[in-house]
Fold this protein.
Amino acid sequence: MWSTHLRNAVTRALLPLSWRIDSQHAARTLKRFSEVEFDSAWQYLNALGHTRVPKMQLMLFENLLEEMEHSDGFLEVAHKLARDRLQGGSGSRSVLVKSANDIHYFLAFAHESEKAICAQFNGYARACSHLPAAAEVFRGIAIDEEKHEREARASLLAVVGSETIVRRLVWKVKFKKAYASWLRGSQHIGDAIFTLWLGAVYLLFGPLLRSYCAARLTKSTQVQVAEPAQNPLRPTLES
Ligand SMILES: [Fe+2]
Ligand SMILES: [Fe+2]
């Protein structure tokens, strides 16, 4: 929860200025959200093919339609703000449901993800109040996401029939998400340390190598001027 508050505080502090300075940056961010929403719709559609529970099928179908609407809403406002052409998305996707056994975990995952995205969108709605069209899209979608969050939990409880199992699955999702973000964070830290090392090596050895290389270069140029290379194919004056 603290990470959501921290992220919203950073968004609130930085977004108004960065989006005011560069509307193309705002458009690109909104387009990325559109792609995330489209991916959510795809995940609901995919999950739909792995369950035979009519009530859950209906919930998944309604949610996928709403996610498609969210995707369209973000894309529309992105194009309104864009100054230049918007590039296509990455196209990569990790499939959350591969068999009927994954449905319970998927519902727990949907519950947690919808909760996080709802908090994030409310944060964005407050941060971009200077762009009323975008703020309205964020606010409207956050209401749907809150509904998806509740429905995913209710569906999970209906199929597993135990609050304890629901809580256990939700904790499993929390743990996996925390582990994934720790991995991402440690990779960034590793990259930063590697960059610092390279910088230090360059600063320490750069001046020494520079004078050594300059001396070698001058010497080889002098040798070439003194003894020009003979081209065997070139006819000599005597022949
Ligand atoms: Fe959505
Ligand atoms: Fe959603």
The pocket of fe (ii) ion (ligand 1) is lined by residues 37, 40, 67, 70, 141, 145 (CB under 6 Å).
